Amino acid sequence: MLSRRHFIQSSAALLGLAAAASWLPRGALAIDPEQLLQRQIPGSDERLPVIGLGTSRTFDVSLNDNSLSPLDEVMRTFINGGARLIDTAPSYGNAEAVTGELLKRTGTQRKAFLATKISANSRARGQAQFEASLRNLQTDTLDLVQVHNLQDTRTQLALLRELKDQGKVRYIGITHYLESAHDELLEVLAREPVDFVQFNYSLAERNAEKRLLPYCADRGIATLINRPFQRGQLLDRVRGKSLPDWAMEVDASSWAQLLLKFILAHPAVTVVIPATSKARYMADNLKAGHGRLPDAALRERIVRAFS
Ligand SMILES: NC(=O)c1ccc[n+]([C@@H]2O[C@H](COP(=O)([O-])OP(=O)(O)OC[C@H]3O[C@@H](n4cnc5c(N)ncnc54)[C@H](OP(=O)(O)O)[C@@H]3O)[C@@H](O)[C@H]2O)c1
């Protein structure tokens, strides 16, 4: 029997790309969703595709057709590419509501793994924020809710544990985005049971390799990696520079894929969550979840190429 990918490839070859694209769901052509690497959520039998989607700034747009249609394409590319985890937050302006609207428009609500956050200073505010997130994301339950930037951690984690016991949240976690907060993340992890921890890690910010990533591997905590491109600044370093030939040794066809593969090569990484407002970047990022990952020597070669 023909695999879906071979069917799509041969059909595209026969009919021509444009003709084939007209009957396929938008964004479906280039990537075989079944080949996207997945990793287990420790302590569960659930696996997640390693490429996720951040929404900070990129999804903070007006809820009108003009603003939503390019993001509609990002969402279709993401879901059609086999990816699932979307990270958003009440503090990202319209991003939660835009995510909810795009999932509805594309009919993909049930495929997504929805992660949002709580950033509040009291239990009552945390509870109200959670209810607002459910409304914005147009859902009754959430897959993951994280305490944002360690704000009011004890109170909010206690609330999240209750919501988990009630079946309104499946997993709980904590986040930060600065290396200076990694020690505090570790302190919280040592005293509070959580399922996920989200933090910054990239070839330019490697502090997490020292203690945080090994700790998560040892204790069975899932990791989400934010700021993989340092908000795009890392890609500015190589603008106009051609991709080295050795990139093909790890099946990378862009600088962005090299950055993401550098991160995914760490075995304690569960999902990396680059943000983008462009479908072509989304497709590019998904490709980083395919093919070979760099070994230690190639990782250092990637570091040197960006220095
Ligand atoms: N405290 C926290 O919990 C926390 C803090 C920071 C981030 N986060 C999460 O982590 C996510 C990612 O971090 P981030 O948004 O700060 O930055 P990032 O993912 O490191 O960088 C995003 C930027 O990279 C560009 N980009 C994406 N893919 C590209 C590609 N293939 N080629 C070229 N450029 C590309 C995007 O450009 P375009 O806009 O042109 O597409 C965007 O401007 C956030 O969206 C958020 O969900 C959480």
Sketch the major β-sheet: 8 strands, parallel
Assigned CATH architecture: Alpha-Beta Barrel
Give the overall average pLDDT: 92
CATH topology: TIM Barrel
Main structural class: alpha/beta
- The Rg value, from CA coordinates, equals 19 Å
- CATH C-level class: Alpha Beta
The portion of residues assigned to helices is 40-55%
Residue stretches low in confidence (pLDDT < 50, at least 5 long) are: 1-29
Strand content: 5-15%
Strand order of the largest sheet: 3-4-5-6-7-8-9-10
Total domains, how many?
Answer: 1
Instruction: Give the cofactors and ligands.
Output: NADP nicotinamide-adenine-dinucleotide phosphate
Shape: globular
Instruction: Please tally the helical runs, counting DSSP H or I stretches of 4 or more residues.
Output: 12
Distance between the termini: 47 Å
Q: What is the helix/strand order? A: HHEEEHEHEHEHEHEHEHHEHH
Give the total of beta strands.
10
Which homologous superfamily in CATH is the superfamily?
Answer: NADP-dependent oxidoreductase domain
Can you offer a commentary on this structure?
It is a single chain. The protein has a single domain (39-305), classed as NADP-dependent oxidoreductase domain (TIM Barrel). The longest helix has 16 residues, at 65-80. Residues 1-29 have low confidence and may be disordered. Helices cover 40% and strands 14% of the residues. The relative contact order is 0.13. It is built from twelve helices and ten strands.
